[in-house]
Every structure is written in structure tokens, then in C-alpha cells.
Amino acid sequence: MTDAHDTWTAPVAEGPLDADIRVPGSKSITNRAYVLAALASAPTRVRTPLDSRDARLMLGAIYALGAHSQGSIGGYLVHPLGPGRVHPEETVRVELGNAGTVARFTPALAALGTGPALFDGDEAIRRRPIGPLLKALRGLGARIDDDRREAPPFTVHGEGGLRGGKVDLDSSASSQFLSALLLAGPSFQQGVTVRLVGGAVPSEPHIAMTSEMLRRFGATVDREGAEFHVAPTRLSCPEYVVEPDLSTAAPFVAAAVATGGTVRIAGWPQRTTQPGDWLRSLLPVLGATAELDAGGLTVSGSGTIPGVELDLHDVGELTPVIAALLCLAEGPSIISGVAHLRGHETDRLTALATELSSLGADVRETEDGLRITPAPLHGGKFHTYDDHRLVMAAAVLGLRVEGVEVENPETVGKTFPGFAEAWTSMLG
């Protein structure tokens, strides 16, 4: 294991790649499946889930709240939340780490249970926005103490159920606020009707993912413009198979483009709600090709990367890898629509501008994105700010730049514990 002072030297590609890659299960799907399984009326076998820090934190959180799980062949058998605690007056602790899905998806589960639950985690999670969600949960009948911090640590007092009903929600800082209410909505006494207020919700694909998974578990999800409705119902899904994580596949897709080579990514689904699938439409813009068949996705780069203007509002999590790739382009680029990235694991816009510029690129922050002007690049330390996507961005840059020293590479274990080994193997 490494600590925050250790580094990994990102390997340089000696020429065009020709590689086959398999990425782990989707974090977004895995953690939604665990939440829905905890709320179901019977056990759910979750197959091919992601096994990473965030996924383990989610399993630990639902266990603390009364949903036991056990390892099985190719995944976990997750049992529903129990009827109540033996000692409901005792406070249980829900460990959040720096996992946004855990911090946002599980407070509603605590409100459905009995007794107090304290939510807290790393220092970074205390800086990530959650106030609008806590406000909405209070509007639906939850009792929450946060000393007006609107951030962890906070305590949810479960009283055996939640009224639910209609509520206004500002989800402009994170689509996870809306997903949190929709996922728990079938278990509220009146279901839930969420009316969106404030700015546009980022990452529409993640809202579609939540809705589709709810339907797989037997829920009814209706949408009319800015209003969502989920009726109360008993959830059930005996088996759920998790797709490969297409956002985690992004650096491998970028590797084909950066080297002018070919990378085949196994298991890429024919149809999916994952934001990462947007990469297929991006590739022709970058002068590359993408062929999808039953075996997966084959990406081939041309060796030339043009400058582009991209609105990544709906696929913001791809920004770090794409920004790194565009530093290797032949002309300037603009990324817009991603102001919400300032509230992720770190302020990703500031971090990217700082680190990419430190290696020679001219990367400047705008109000809602980045302006990238390619320039001669050189090696140096690339700080990652405990952000897994920054490790992946540094790896992409290292394909063409010698001496990129990636700080704290172990932080990539949030979504892909074996990333460095898989990356090195890809290069042969």
C-alpha cells in the first residue's frame, strides 16, 4: 500500500496500442442496486458488482442500518432492512468516507428505520453539498439534527417510517439529491412527488439510470417536465446484474485516441443509461472510430486529436480524462457546463487547471468549465487531491509525457483498485 506521499510513474506508450481490457462493475449501478436491495421485500442477489472502497462503504452503511449481506458466487446476496433494532435508543454510526452516493442515498433509509443514526466521514465529505437533500427529507417528515451545518456530521432519527408526499428540491449541485429521494420513494407511506426548483440538474443519464433501476425492482416512476412521482410499492428483484463501469473505461478509450492505436473494451453494453456511453458519440469528433458488437467496444485512434468545444453538463464525471486528452490536441479546446464539478471529491476544475498547467499546458478555469490551450508538456508531480478521476487523467497524460509522477495512486481504489496494474498491462 502507498500513502499520500508515494507516487506512481505513469508509463509512456512506446507506440500505438493494441490491447484488450475488461473494467470492473459500475459504481453508480452497484450502489443503487445495494440501496434498492435493502429496501426490497425479499433478498436480492447482486451479481458482478464493483468491489471498491465506495462499494464497501455502501455495504457497510446499509449493514449499520439493518440490511445484512453475504458474499456469494460473483457478488453479494443482500437482505432487506430488518424490522427494527434490538436497542433502538443506541446511536449507530454510518461511515461515509468520501463517498457521495453513500452520504446522499442512505439518510432516507435511516429515516425509515428506528433510532438515531450518525452520519460522518472524511474531512472532504464535510465540504461536499448535501443541504438541499436534508431540507427535502425534513419536508417529507424526517427528523434530522445537523446544527445548521447542512453537511456531515448529522444525525437522522428513525421513527419507523416516513410520510413522504410532495416536496420541492434544488438538485442543481448534484443529481444524487434527486436520485436519493426517488430510490427511497417507494418505501414512503405516500410515495414521493419531487418538483425540481433552482438550476438545471446535472447528469441527466444518472437520473435515467435511477428511474430504470427502480422499474427493474417493480416501482412506477412518472415524469412530467420538472416533476417526478414514485408511487408507494413493495420492491422486488431476485437477481440484478451490474454492467461494467463505462466512466472507468474512459481512460482506456482515451488511450486509443492518444496513441493512435486500438483498444477493445469487453462487455460494453448494447444499451445502457450510463453517462460513459456518451464516449461513443465523442470519438468521431476526436478523429477516432468506435465499433460496438456483442463482444464489446473497439476504439481506434487516428493519431491526430483536433481541438474541440464540448458541453459536458450531462457527463461531467468524464471531464478529468477528457481534459487531459485535450492537452494532447493540435488546437485549443473549451469544456463547458460543468460548474457542479467544484463540489465533487475535490474542486475538480481548480485541480485540473492547476495540475495540467503545472506540466506545461495552458489550462484556465472559466465560470463553468475549462479553456485548454495545448503547449509543450514535461514531467513532474501530478497531485490527485484524493480524487480517483485525477489519477486516471494523469495516466492518460503520461502516455505521451515522460516522467508524470502521480501522487497517491491508491486513491483510485474508490472505483478501480487494480487500475495501475491494468494500465501497465495494457501497455504490454
Automatic annotation (TrEMBL):
Q: Which GO terms describe its molecular function?
A: 3-phosphoshikimate 1-carboxyvinyltransferase activity
Q: Which CDD domains match?
A: EPSP_synthase (cd01556)
Catalytic site positions: E317 (proton acceptor)
Q: Which domain of life is it from?
A: Bacteria
Binding of 3-phosphoshikimate, residues: K27, S28, R32, S174, S175, Q176, S203, E317, H344
Give the matching Gene3D superfamilies: Enolpyruvate transferase domain
Instruction: Determine if Transferase is one of this entry's keywords.
Output: yes
Q: What is its EC number?
A: 2.5.1.19
What pathway is this protein a component of?
A: Metabolic intermediate biosynthesis; chorismate biosynthesis; chorismate from D-erythrose 4-phosphate and phosphoenolpyruvate: step 6/7
Enolpyruvate transferase domain segment(s): 15-422
Q: Which reaction does it catalyse?
A: 3-phosphoshikimate + phosphoenolpyruvate = 5-O-(1-carboxyvinyl)-3-phosphoshikimate + phosphate
Q: Extract the PANTHER family matched here.
A: AROM/DEHYDROQUINATE SYNTHASE, PENTAFUNCTIONAL AROM POLYPEPTIDE
Q: What is this protein called?
A: 3-phosphoshikimate 1-carboxyvinyltransferase
Q: Which gene encodes it?
A: aroA
